[in-house]
Amino acid sequence: MKRYRGRINSTQKDILKWMLKNLVLISKEKILSEGKERFMEDTEFLIPWSPRDSFNIDNKNHMSKISTSLRLLEQRGYIKRHRNTPKGPVAYVAFTNDGIFIAKTWARITESNEEDDYKNFDDIEKGFERQDSDSYDQWNQGDEI
What we know:
Blueprint: H1 10-32, E1 44-46, H2 51-54, H3 60-75, E2 92-96, E3 99-102, E4 107-109, E5 115-117, H4 122-125, H5 136-139
Antiparallel strand pairs: 1-2, 2-3, 4-5
């Protein structure tokens, strides 16, 4: 049973449309891949979360607007963050029958060169943005040895 979650503003609508656009692209790829794979509503997909590129953010006010919108969407149950491991980067987007769930992928490199995950939406307001956790170098470091 779906419940009314309240009105959403134009920024929140832009975020949800961006997620839906990615859902359509990914589902087309899944359907056309080998014929054996089928797109399912509860399948989880990896979509890098890079708001500066996705929403053409050019100033702190716009970044703050996106951050506030994300927080409100999460509070209302439209979106949900997910982490594979307690300290691992968050990078999953899950689509279900009851809504679209996204997890942000913020992290930073500390002085000790270890990746440190951000814990809340305030980081985006301060201008911190992580490098994509799904970049080739991150996931394939062991192959170069």
